[in-house]
Amino acid sequence: MSTVEASERRALQRSRTFWKGTILFPGGLRSTECTVRNFTPKGARLDCGGVNDLPDHFQLKIPQKGETFDCAVIWRRMPEIGVAFVETAANGSDSLADKLKTLEQQNRRLLRRLNEQSSD
């Protein structure tokens, strides 16, 4: 398939970028820098360097756009990830139950990683 055919299938045209971004982990206790390689109103491709412990859901702050986006990871091919921008609730905040669920999932993932490292 040619590049032209692939781009014709996309609903939105991608914009190649070289923007600085900051990934804000749930709970606000950690953040990491990234490079936004391309951008659409629905998502982005991020270069995360050697970071491989990114959560499945996080906020992406892009200073050049003056915005912060709620993101869900849709693919991972380190050092890059693809994210979709998630619509937030009408009041702009997630429910407490959703936040708790996200933190519990992140906790389980980290515990698995610790167990794997200690068994090596």
Blueprint of the fold:
Blueprint lengths: L2 H7 L5 E10 L6 E10 L2 E5 L9 E6 L4 E11 L2 E6 L10 H24 L1
Antiparallel strand pairs: 1-2, 1-4, 2-3, 3-6, 4-5, 5-6
Largest beta-sheet characterization:
6 strands, antiparallel, barrel
Q: Rg, please?
A: 16 Å
Second CATH tier, the architecture: Beta Barrel
**Could you give the order of strands across the largest sheet?**
1-2-3-6-5-4
Which term fits the overall shape?
globular
Assigned CATH class: Mainly Beta
Q: Percent of residues in beta strands?
A: 35-45%
Full CATH superfamily name: predicted glycosyltransferase like domains
Keywords: Coiled coil
Coiled coil: 93-120
Protein name: PilZ domain-containing protein
Structural features, described:
The protein has 120 residues and is of the alpha+beta class. The protein has a single domain (3-119), classed as predicted glycosyltransferase like domains (Thrombin, subunit H, Beta Barrel). It contains 2 helices and 6 strands. It has helices at residues 3-9, 96-119; strands spanning 15-24, 31-40, 43-47, 57-62, 67-77, 80-85. It has a 6-stranded antiparallel barrel. A hairpin with a 6-residue loop joins strand 1 (15-24) and strand 2. The radius of gyration is 16 Å and the shape is globular. The N and C termini lie far apart (43 Å).
